[in-house]
Amino acid sequence: MTSTACIVPSPLEMAMEHLIDVFGQYSQKDQMKQTLNKQQLRKLMDEQLTTLMQHHNNQKAIDNVFKDLDFDGDGLVAFEEFLSLVAGLTKSCNDRLLIKEHKRLTSQTKQ
Amino acid sequence: MTSTACIVPSPLEMAMEHLIDVFGQYSQKDQMKQTLNKQQLRKLMDEQLTTLMQHHNNQKAIDNVFKDLDFDGDGLVAFEEFLSLVAGLTKSCNDRLLIKEHKRLTSQTKQ
């Protein structure tokens, strides 16, 4: 019995796999082009970013996100444009965590 | 017994959490600034990108990555600079998957 070395992906590799799988799940493929139209982006955000969408769940917000993401103006969002959405959201989440932690530490030093 | 609604993060939210956690694990915090120096970036890449690093495991490659990432030239990699590394790597993985699938489909139609 040949032992197949089971390579466990690291958390970073898992994150990259999730990003590829999620985009693949909602996008359409045409030859080598893989894109999201506005309805597909809306569905992705509704289903994959539920917490965020509770606070920003209006069509105008989605229109603005779509316009910002569609760098080349072809009416479609490509993978790298989707990744810039994820990077922006992740950065703002991280910034909020840093502020929270900074406030916690400063209030501790005052006690 | 109060039932705490257990919110299961979506795959995309998990990916975002992994990115924040991984950067937090290897970076240092100074007040509100969270950064990686070159040794920390090397450690992160060695431990979190093992598959990739098997093919690019030389100091010169790391130096080039660090130089490319350090947009503001402060000798440190900030979170958004790290996210651009992840975006670039994820895009090239996705491109390779698209090419593989395109070849598979074209060879099927020829049979």
From TrEMBL, chains A, B:
UniProt entry keywords in alphabetical sequence: Calcium
Domain EF-hand: start-end pairs: 57-92
Keyword Phosphoprotein among record annotations: no
Name of the gene encoding the protein in the UniProt record: LOC103182053
Calcium among keywords: yes
SUPFAM superfamilies: EF-hand (SSF47473)
Protein name stated in the entry: Protein S100-A1-like
GO MF annotations, alphabetized: calcium ion binding; calcium-dependent protein binding; transition metal ion binding
PANTHER family, sorted: PROTEIN S100-A1-RELATED, S100 CALCIUM-BINDING PROTEIN
InterPro entries associated with the record: EF-hand-dom_pair (IPR011992), EF_Hand_1_Ca_BS (IPR018247), EF_hand_dom (IPR002048), S-100_dom (IPR034325), S100_Ca-bd_sub (IPR013787)
Pfam family, one: S_100
Top-level division of the source organism's lineage: Eukaryota
Lineage start: Eukaryota, Metazoa, Chordata, Craniata, Vertebrata
Source organism of the structure: Callorhinchus milii (Ghost shark)
